[in-house]
Specification:
The chain is an alpha/beta fold. It contains 10 helices and 10 strands. The chain binds adenosine-5'-triphosphate (ATP).
Amino acid sequence: MSAVTIEHLSKIYPTSNSLLKYLLGKIDNTGFQALTDISFSVKEGEFFGLLGPNGAGKSTLISILAGLSRPTTGTASILGFDVQKDYKQARRSLGVVPQEIVYDPFFTVRETLRNQSGYFGLRHNDDWIDEILSHLGLTEKADVNMRELSGGMKRRVLVAQALVHRPPVIILDEPTAGVDVDLRRNLWDFISHLNQKGHTIILTTHYLEEAQDLCERLAFIKKGQLMEIDGTENILKKYQTDTIEDVFVRIMQEEQAHEYA
Ligand SMILES: Nc1ncnc2c1ncn2[C@@H]1O[C@H](COP(=O)(O)OP(=O)(O)OP(=O)(O)O)[C@@H](O)[C@H]1O
């Protein structure tokens, strides 16, 4: 079974019409097309990279997978669970590390992780919480209030939060943005360890070297369209280069999507 299946997914964000436009009868119904007919799947146990420039549609795709945004057309499923019809099972199968740092300033790190466990109906989860804290270098911060943490530390907590319910599929949306070298290493060691234990990892990052080193397969998205998808080694061969950065630059200059099917 595939870890993630995406079929003919499109997303059009409705244009926000001002009251003035409404009163003048000039309502814009066209909307903004953020994703266009995207189809691909990610195998169980894969380390998969989703690459694209700012505004390409990566976070939109992730928010659809997390059930936070509705696709305009098409379907998506996590381990066979439709992200809308089987929302609960799909969400339980998925851990998402969001790009934006959102947190509740009234809780400590441990309380934040306990709350997140409760959200999934898990109690007595402290052994696993301690293990995650240790892997992410957060043990000493366990009883510190969230608002007292640095930006990089808060990001570590976001990663921990995504893992509390031991999800088989983990999506990381730019987890290393603004994070020091130490944590980057820590984080990749931990994520690679989870991948070796069978977790499926989907990663978006603007650090293309990291994507090249870590991901077995890569998808490139540009302006909401899937431009290329293949094994990292195959892509390097196809483009006759040894860096994914080079491939990225060339794909982003292309007008048309490749025949990847
Ligand atoms: N809620 C929204 N309403 C309208 N347009 C949106 C909304 N969210 C995103 N967009 C637009 O959809 C497009 C895709 O955005 P998205 O955040 O998915 O890109 P991204 O690939 O994740 O970019 P980045 O690398 O900067 O995070 C952008 O043009 C963005 O402005």
